[in-house]
Amino acid sequence: MTPLPPPLGGGEFVAWRLDAAAYSQQWDSGLGAARAGGRWNSPGTRAVYCALDPATAILEVAVHVGFDDLDSIPRVLTSFTILTAVKIRVIGPEEIPNPNWLHPGRPTTNQQHFGDSFLALHGIIVIPSAVSTRSWCLIFLADVVTNLYQFRSQERFALDPRLTPPTI
Fold first, then answer.
1. Torsion angle, alpha carbons of 50, 58, 16, 32, to 10
2. Alpha-carbon distance 137 to 90, whole Å?
3. Residue 166 domain-assigned (yes or no)
4. What letters, b where the CB count within 10 A reaches 16 and e where it falls short, cover 25-44?
5. Is residue 3 part of a domain?
6. Is 167 helix (H, G, I), strand (E, B) or coil?
7. pLDDT tens-digit profile of 140-167?
């Protein structure tokens, strides 16, 4: 269950990530983003993309691979606790130089360099999601912030079958 936020009785700052089961033990390596680059990092930067809630983590993967893939390839949902929020840099929509960067589409080199600079400076950022515009992504540098989070749990992911209805 997703922990409740502190005002409602929770207390932990939990983030989430969805990976193919084959890569679940490397969930915090940043190797995939380093290979291909991402929305907020250039190739070569070991960024780990996560979300502040499990639904956004699922949507962030689904937008790239589709629901059929989520339904047919074993996946693992990982949660971890942020131990200190002091080092996190929240980047609000008003700070993004080009508002189109927050919309779906291929990232530009300028967008990736923007993310690289914030990641290099802070190590861990929270930034609006492009797939779920009222949600937040959390991104961290794999080799920089290992002491700022603690693994919490991994569980097999099961997609609701209504998201892949049979074709009639």
1. -40
2. 10
3. no
4. eebbebebbbeebbbbbbee
5. no
6. coil
7. 999 888 889 999 999 999 999 899 888 7
Task: Read off φ and ψ for residue 125, nearest 5 degrees.
Answer: -130, 155
Nearest of 158, 148, 166 to residue 70 by alpha carbon: 158
Q: Is 66 helix (H, G, I), strand (E, B) or coil?
A: coil
Is residue 157 within 8 A of residue 84, CB to CB? The reply is: no
Cα angle 62, 67, 68 (rounded to 5 degrees) comes to 135
Q: Quick one: tokens of 22?
A: 């084959």
Q: The tokens 């499990």 sit on which residue? A: 54
Domain holding 39, by residue range, is 11-160
The predicted-structure confidence for 42-65, as pLDDT tens digits, reads as follows 999 999 999 999 999 999 999 999
Residue 87 lies in a domain: yes
Q: What angle do CA 88, 64, 105 make, to 5 degrees?
A: 75
Per the DSSP assignment, residues forming a β-bridge with 82 are 13, 149
The gap between the terminal CA atoms of the chain, to the nearest Å, is 35
Q: Specify if 168 maps to a domain.
A: no
The count of structural domains within the chain is: 1
Tell me if 140 sits within 8 A of 48, measured CB to CB. Answer: yes
Closest CA to 38 of 116, 132, 96: 116
DSSP state of 39: T
H or E stretch at 90: strand 89-90
